[in-house]
Every structure is written in structure tokens, then in C-alpha cells.
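User: What would this chain look like folded?
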Amino acid sequence: MVKESNYLKDNYSFSFVAPKVVARLDDWQLAKKPISGIAWYNVLANPSYVRSFNYIQVDVPQREDLIVDGDDEEGNDCEQSDMVSVLMNLAYFKPEVARDFVFQAGYSTEFKKAMENAK
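Assistant: Here's the prediction, encoded as C-alpha cells.
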């Protein structure tokens, strides 16, 4: 979940987890009281939903090679799978972006700009 949160923050300028929580979960020293199960509810933490939505998680090696997109442009190969995660986290968008943004091929760079420029 740490990689997923960091990926969304770096590529889409939003996160579904507070930075403090990500830092704490990423500090993987031997825990006295380890977290078991799912620490917070995220649909894509459930393998059944991952399969149902054909989502390829960000920690899968050579992820971009496993995603078939509809164009020859390099650099946007993960957008098809990313859209699942992006839309599943709609609640974390800035309101004007959630209301006005149009998803189309190459959306990832424009989405990040929209999130950074929104009030």
C-alpha cells in the first residue's frame, strides 16, 4: 500500500493515505504489535477486486509490459490500469478536478497538472 500511495502522489498528485501513516508503514522495523489484515479499507487491496477490475498493481515488476494500451505512444502505458485506481479514489480529488476533468488518452500528465493547479 505504501508503493501504491507513493505512486499516486508522484504521478497524479493525490494520496489516499496521510503522509505520516505512509512513513510509519514504510518504517519496517520489527513491530511489537504488527498490523494484520488490511490496515485501512482500500478496494484494490483485495485480490478478488484486483482481478475483477483487471488492475495491475504498481509493485508488479515490468508492469508496463503487462498492460496493453490502445496506442503506440511510450510513457502512458500504465494509464489504462492507473485509471482504475484513480477513479476508485475519486473522493481524494480536489472538487473542481473531480467535477470538470475529462479522461482521454494521455490523461495522466494533464490530470497531475489539474490537481496541482486546483485551489
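The radius of gyration is 15 Å. If you want, I can go into more detail on any region.
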